[in-house]
């Protein structure tokens, strides 16, 4: 009786819809983690992309060009994070906060500047690419907006990529910068490349929020979903596919609050507490990349 | 002891005021002042390029932050949490830890203060309620941070991630509490709590302004903590742990104890800030009741990392910016998000200046060689 709604297509439909952006953030964060970058700026990059997905759609009158504008802005914002963290040597945490706070201010400012009457995409929105699909399960699995599938595809591809020769180079940047350097790898260039790819993936998540979920740009519309992506990486054991599964857990917990009155809101706590428990018990530091968040010129070892 | 004197020698602006340390300290102050003035200049210049009138921006900034007793009161009230979160982040960083959970600790502290002041059924006298509520706030913030401290010391879990997660746990909890158990009886349809009783509200410092004596308390606590860390043996040892973990371990310092202690103390400061904000500025909890003072504290701490006595000053500057936001929007028609942008500019400028100095130094060395 408690969980009869768990069997309804509506519940899973909404759970997967809110999972989409979190999953994309999780994949991007997983890539960065494995390369030794703690991508605290992910929240700001996602916010910039959400803003430009809507702005781009309004300017070009096309959702897909909006997505393209978002991806470009996401890559740019992500590289700004890299410049602050590596070139100016702020470190991942301070650089991340500068990007997050800066993105909050700049998107808020340019929303008022360019769209004083509100930034809304109106009739445009990112929906399923094909018509209705028969059956509840079919609808849940095969009738989502396309970027949800992009998250799954990106996670699988990334997991395979990490096993290749190039993947090994990326992981060496995450496990031991000393070893990576001794093989003549230009770590700064490598990490900028990783950030560009991650920025593009996060931007798809930002575009999902802008174009498929909210449809309007409000200040801080991302509201922590980038940070949740970071949590998913831990909960998913630093594996991209695991991170996407963790994202689904956050999505389900979020959807629960609208189904269970009274205690429903408290259900949102569950994935965060689970992440903390995972960090404190069976995972701890042993499983994470050794260099995560330590920067390239940390001489305290 | 040789280790500690080595530490004392390394952190130039430490205790003994020699001529060199004075020169280093004044250079540090000059660089930070330059960072603030430059970023303000850049901001006004960029706004002028976008077609806003620089004159009215400067006038609005001044009148909104310091032009009258009322606006100065708003600025200094906004500085109360910032001074404390800034020192909290700096304190944890002395031992080599990042506390990015200041916001969660602050909110938990405010909740504890609210429960003690309104729900605990204590006698309705300020002389009892205020100290007890502030004590509860400090302890709650400390306990909240201790979770991350224990996870780090016992299990090696990254404190950046755990404090970030604990933020969200705190936000969700407080959001649910103001909709459920502590939902206001007078406003049952909007999510908010009842205000704390009048006897628990901090009395004002300057009549006609919102400034309470909480400002003095926050300033004294902030300066005292900095002085204590900079001069006490425990503080020096904490810095030794942060500067060189391995050397500290070889010197026999219990690193984990220092980590746990600095994290808990950092949380105490943030929780205390939450108590002061609740009793002195906001009085009740409602959605969006808190600004991201913890995150801003991180920016402030890293601006003044090497000259921590400037942390209270940066807190006041950030408070002035926050106070100027609405006036900037009202008088100069500039979107008030520009204030948020301005919070990041001094950090960027400071690191750019450092980068430029380093580059010039490297070029000089090249030329000399």
Describe this structure in words.
- The complex is a heterodimer of chains A (301) and B (369).
- Chain A is 67% helix and 1% strand.
- By secondary structure, chain A is mostly helical.
- Chain A has a two-stranded antiparallel sheet.
- Residues 1-17 of chain B have low confidence and may be disordered.
Characterize the overall form of chain A.
globular
Number of helices of chain B: 14
Residue share in β-strands of chain B: under 5%
Fraction of residues in H or I helices of chain B: over 70%
Helix % of chain A is 55-70%
N-to-C SSE series of chain B? HHHHHHHHHHHHHH
Oligomer: heterodimer
Radius of gyration of chain B: 22 Å
Order of helical and strand elements of chain A: HHHHEHHHHHEHHH
Low-confidence stretches of chain A: none
Number of strands of chain A: 2
Read across the widest sheet of chain A, the strand sequence of neighbours is: 1-2
Main traits of this protein?
heterodimer; A: 301 residues; mainly alpha; 2 strands; B: 369 residues; 14 helices; disordered N terminus
In short:
The complex is a heterodimer of chains A (301) and B (369). Chain A has 301 residues and is mainly α.
Detail the topology: elements first, then pairings.
The complex is a heterodimer of chains A (301) and B (369).
Chain A: H1 9-34, H2 42-60, H3 63-87, H4 92-114, E1 119-120, H5 136-142, H6 146-161, H7 165-175, H8 177-182, H9 187-214, E2 216-217, H10 225-235, H11 240-256, H12 269-280
Antiparallel strand pairs in A: 1-2
Helix pairs in contact in A: 1-5, 1-6, 1-9, 1-10, 1-11, 2-3, 2-4, 2-9, 2-10, 3-4, 3-9, 6-9, 6-11, 10-11, 10-12, 11-12
Chain B: H1 2-10, H2 19-49, H3 54-65, H4 69-94, H5 102-119, H6 126-155, H7 159-177, H8 214-231, H9 233-243, H10 245-250, H11 255-282, H12 293-303, H13 311-332, H14 338-368
Helix pairs in contact in B: 1-9, 2-14, 3-13, 4-8, 4-11, 4-12, 4-13, 5-6, 5-7, 5-11, 5-12, 6-7, 6-11, 8-9, 12-13, 12-14, 13-14
């Amino acid at each position: 009786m408690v969980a009869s709604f768990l069997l309804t297509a509506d519940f899973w439909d909404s759970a997967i819809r809110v999972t989409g952006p979190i999953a994309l953030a999780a994949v991007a964060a997983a890539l960065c983690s494995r390369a030794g970058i703690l991508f605290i700026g992910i929240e700001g990059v996602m916010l910039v992309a959400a803003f430009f997905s809507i702005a781009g759609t309004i300017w070009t009158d096309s959702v897909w060009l909006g997505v393209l504008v978002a991806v470009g802005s996401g890559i740019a914002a992500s590289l700004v994070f890299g410049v602050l963290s590596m070139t100016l040597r702020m470190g991942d945490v301070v650089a991340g906060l500068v990007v997050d706070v800066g993105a909050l201010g700049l998107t808020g400012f340019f929303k008022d500047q360019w769209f004083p009457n509100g930034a809304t995409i109106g009739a445009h929105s990112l929906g399923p690419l094909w018509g209705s699909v028969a059956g509840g399960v079919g609808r849940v699995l095969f009738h989502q907006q396309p970027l949800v599938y992009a998250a799954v595809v990106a996670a699988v591809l990334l997991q395979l990529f990490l096993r290749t020769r190039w993947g090994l180079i990326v992981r060496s940047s995450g496990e031991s910068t000393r070893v990576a350097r001794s093989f003549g790898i230009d770590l700064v260039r490598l990490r900028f490349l990783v950030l560009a790819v991650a920025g593009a993936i996060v931007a798809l998540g930002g575009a999902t929020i802008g174009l498929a979920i909210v449809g309007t740009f409000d200040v801080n519309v991302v509201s922590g979903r980038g940070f949740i992506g970071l949590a998913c990486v831990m909960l998913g054991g630093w594996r991209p596919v695991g991170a996407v599964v963790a994202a689904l857990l956050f999505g389900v917990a979020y959807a629960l609050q609208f189904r269970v009155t009274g205690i429903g809101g408290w259900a949102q706590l569950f994935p965060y507490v689970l992440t903390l428990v995972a960090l404190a018990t069976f995972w701890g530091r042993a499983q994470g990349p050794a260099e995560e968040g330590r920067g390239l010129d940390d001489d305290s070892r | 002891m040789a280790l500690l004197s080595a530490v004392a020698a390394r952190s130039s602006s430490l205790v003994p005021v020699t001529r060199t340390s004075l020169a280093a300290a004044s250079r540090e102050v000059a660089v930070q002042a330059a960072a603030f003035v430059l970023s303000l200049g850049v901001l006004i210049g960029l706004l002028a390029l976008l077609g806003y009138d620089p004159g009215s921006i400067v006038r609005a900034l001044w009148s909104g932050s310091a032009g009258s007793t009322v606006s100065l009161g708003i600025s200094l009230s906004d500085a109360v949490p910032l001074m404390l979160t800034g020192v909290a982040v700096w304190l944890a960083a002395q031992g080599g830890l990042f506390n990015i959970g200041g916001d969660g600790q602050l909110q938990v502290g405010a909740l504890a203060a609210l429960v003690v002041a309104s729900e605990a059924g204590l006698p309705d006298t300020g002389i009892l309620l205020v100290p007890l509520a502030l004590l509860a706030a400090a302890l709650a913030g400390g306990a909240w941070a201790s979770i991350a401290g224990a996870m780090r010391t016992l299990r090696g879990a990254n404190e950046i991630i755990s404090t970030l997660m604990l933020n969200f746990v705190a936000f969700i909890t407080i959001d649910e509490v103001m909709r459920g158990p502590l939902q206001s009886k007078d406003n049952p349809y909007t999510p908010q709590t009842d205000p704390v009783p009048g006897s628990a509200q901090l009395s004002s410092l300057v009549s006609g302004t919102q400034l309470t004596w909480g400002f003095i308390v926050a300033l004294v606590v902030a300066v005292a903590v900095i002085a204590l860390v900079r001069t006490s043996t425990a503080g020096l040892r904490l810095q030794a742990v942060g500067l060189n973990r391995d050397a500290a371990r070889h010197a026999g310092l219990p690193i984990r104890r220092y980590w746990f202690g600095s994290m808990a103390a950092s949380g105490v400061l943030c929780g205390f800030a939450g108590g002061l904000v609740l009793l002195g500025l906001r009085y009740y909890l409602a959605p969006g009741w808190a600004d991201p003072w913890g995150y801003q504290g991180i920016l402030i701490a890293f601006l003044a990392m090497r000259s921590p006595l400037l942390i209270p000053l940066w807190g006041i500057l950030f408070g002035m910016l926050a106070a100027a936001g609405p006036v900037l929007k009202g008088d100069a028609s500039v979107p008030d998000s520009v204030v948020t942008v301005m919070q990041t500019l001094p950090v960027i400028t400071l690191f750019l200046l450092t980068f430029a100095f380093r580059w010039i130094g490297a070029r000089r060395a090249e030329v000399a060689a």
